[in-house]
Design brief:
InterPro entries: PRC-brl_dom, PRC_barrel-like_sf. Pfam families: PRC. This protein has a single domain (6-101), classed as PRC-barrel domain (SH3 type barrels), CATH 2.30.30.240. Helices cover 17% and strands 32% of the residues. It contains 1 helix and 6 strands. It has one helix at 85-101; strands spanning 13-16, 21-30, 37-44, 61-64, 68-71, 75-77. A hairpin with a 6-residue loop joins strand 2 and strand 3.
Length: 102
């Protein structure tokens, strides 16, 4: 396993596996109990329409660590695992439907 110092990730560019420039690493969010990284907090690219992406109250992108495919000169994000609002709305509506049917 290769170890990477978190401070070295600051300002590393995030690009999806389909070539969309998401932005740059701003911070990491950890689970306090386990120490596991939960999400990459990223400053969005100025040309990125963030309306479909999950963001925090400051407009920073929240990218699940499970979406990371590789880390090197840039961080490659698996676009199929990227949390977007339309996916979350579908999941929420499916859960509501299951709750009312069950």
């Amino acid at each position: 396993m290769v170890r990477i110092i978190a401070s070295k990730l600051r300002d590393v560019e995030l690009i999806t596996d389909t070539g969309i420039r998401l932005g740059w690493v701003y911070d990491l969010s950890f689970d306090e109990e386990t120490g596991n990284i939960l999400v990459i907090v990223a400053e969005p690219d100025e040309d990125l329409d963030t309306s479909e992406f999950v963001t925090d109250h400051e407009g920073l992108l929240l990218i699940p660590i499970s979406a990371v495919k590789s880390i090197g000169e840039v961080i490659i994000i698996d676009s199929s695992k990227l949390a977007v609002k339309s996916k979350l709305r579908r999941i929420g509506s499916v859960n509501k439907t299951e709750a009312t049917e069950g």
